[in-house]
Structures are given as structure tokens and as C-alpha cells.
Amino acid sequence: MASSLTCAGIVWAFLSFFCAAASCVGFFMPYWLLGSQLEKSVSFGTFRRCAYPVRDESRQTTVMVEQCGRYASFQAIPSAEWRICTVVTGLGCGLLLLVALTALMGCCVSELISRTVGRVAGGIQFLGG
């Protein structure tokens, strides 16, 4: 298969893919902040959380749900800043993944990535980062 990339471009394509994958995994994992609450270990990320308190109305107490899950809705994310972080980080991961997959296709398809397209992709990658 012919490639439109130089050796440096091929290295860039594979590094872009691995970095985009690591960013996406980090975004989806709920281990950004670790701590304890009600004597239980808790953690949460931008839109997932593990071991979180829930009000039990039948017993009028707060109990810990010891499982990981997403927030029930976008509005259930604790603060506006955290919602903004979720959107910005998600968009960044999406842009990084788009550039990385395009670069990998450039390894297999000739004439897909020109000098100008490479520069634009680098700019998009900078914006995504």
C-alpha cells in the first residue's frame, strides 16, 4: 500500500493514535478524584462516579451505593464548571481521535494527507489538546 506520509508522519500518526486513546480512556474512567465519605472509598471523574451517597427516603438516612455509574442526567453533574469540563474534555478527545484516525488512514491511502492537511491536522490536534 502506498502512503502519503513520510517516516516522521507515520511516527506522528501512531503517536497521535496512542495519545488519543489514552486521553479517551482517561476521560471515561471515574478515577480523577479519590477520597472517602461515610467511611467508604469514593472516586469520580467528569461524568462517572464510584461509591456515591444516596438519600434513602424510606429510612430517612443516607446510604452509600457501592458501584460505578454515570450521572442520571447532564444536570445531575455537581456544578456548572464540572459540566463545562465534561463538554470541553469530551470535545478535545473527539478532535484528537478524529485527527489520529485520519492520520492512520493516511498511512494506507496515497495522496490523502498533503503538507497543508498535515498542518491543519496539527492545528486541530493542538486545539484538542
Automatic annotation (TrEMBL):
<keyword id="KW-1133">Transmembrane helix</keyword>
<dbReference type="InterPro" id="IPR019372">
    <property type="entry name" value="LHFPL"/>
</dbReference>
<protein>
    <submittedName>
        <fullName>Lipoma HMGIC fusion partner</fullName>
    </submittedName>
</protein>
<feature type="transmembrane region" description="Helical">
    <location>
        <begin position="12"/>
        <end position="34"/>
    </location>
</feature>
<dbReference type="Pfam" id="PF10242">
    <property type="entry name" value="L_HMGIC_fpl"/>
</dbReference>
<dbReference type="GO" id="GO:0016020">
    <property type="term" value="C:membrane"/>
</dbReference>
<keyword id="KW-0472">Membrane</keyword>
<keyword id="KW-0812">Transmembrane</keyword>
<feature type="transmembrane region" description="Helical">
    <location>
        <begin position="84"/>
        <end position="105"/>
    </location>
</feature>
